[in-house]
Design brief:
By secondary structure, the protein is an alpha+beta fold. Helices cover 23% and strands 31% of the residues. It contains five helices and 14 strands. It has an eight-stranded mixed sheet, with helices on both faces. The radius of gyration is 18 Å and the shape is globular.
């Protein structure tokens, strides 16, 4: 196998078929490449621009037979204007403390993740994740990444952790790798708020995009992504404006 520490052309591999997490009755397959060595960061950038997502030292994208429902999407941060609803979400969370920390896993983060998975994704692909799996997800990274913690002022020194996002830094934006939150804070719409916060952060830093991974039209799990405009989708002709209301 070619060592990607020196290879400029990555090797790609195809996974076996498995149940699709978004469309019942469909089979999911993925194509992936390893991110290793000194070229990991530029390779991650190039593959993200080509519709891939990162998981630890792997970049992957769907490669399903006779199905193209998963669409890579990104928010155009420089043109983004929050709707009235999103402004209300921002106001509801104005009491949160935002803190960017290194990609170092903590037991506090893991406890929040377990609460989130048990409530929102019981039986899903990550439902049996243990502490060491979480450590690997956060710390086994060959690229520029960080964690954004969102804490509620509760009288303690640091505040109570209610949400967190593992985020990659790209030359043209931010890529939200994985986010989780306290499901007991439903009224805050924390998942939506974290995306909003990343868009506003990217715009303030002069970064044009926030990459959200995949969007599947008609999937209730993906509805929250459709609240952000303008959004672009990756097509055969490149990134083009996406109308999520069709």
């Amino acid at each position: 196998m070619t060592d990607q520490k020196s290879a400029r052309v990555p090797q790609f591999f195809l996974t076996p078929g498995g149940p699709c997490p978004y469309l019942p009755g469909k089979t999911e397959r993925k194509v992936f490449a390893r991110l290793t060595g000194t070229l990991a960061q530029p390779l991650n950038e190039a593959l993200t621009h080509s519709g891939f997502r990162r998981s630890q030292t792997i970049a992957y994208r769907p490669a399903c037979d006779a199905c193209s429902a998963c669409v890579s999407v990104r928010i155009v941060a420089e043109s983004f204007e929050p709707s009235r609803n999103l402004r209300r979400v921002e106001k509801r969370n104005s009491d949160l403390l935002r803190n960017v920390v290194p990609p170092e896993a903590t037991r506090e983060q893991f406890a929040l993740l377990r609460t989130y998975l048990d409530s929102r994704h019981a039986g899903g692909g990550m439902s049996d994740m243990g502490l060491f799996d979480y450590v690997a997800m956060v710390e086994e990274t060959p690229v520029s990444t960080h964690i954004v913690e969102y804490r509620l002022r509760d009288g303690s020194e640091r505040g109570r952790l209610v949400a967190a996002a593992l985020t990659d830094e790209l030359r043209d934006g931010l890529s939200m790798v994985y986010s989780f939150f306290n499901p007991g804070e439903d009224s805050r719409s924390l998942g939506t708020y974290m995306i909003l916060d990343h868009v506003l952060t990217a715009r303030a830093r002069g970064l044009p995009h926030v990459y959200l991974g995949y969007w599947v039209r008609g999937s209730k799990k993906m509805d929250y992504k459709a609240r952000f405009h303008p959004m672009e989708a990756l097509t055969r002709e490149g990134w083009e404006p996406l109308n999520t209301e069709e």
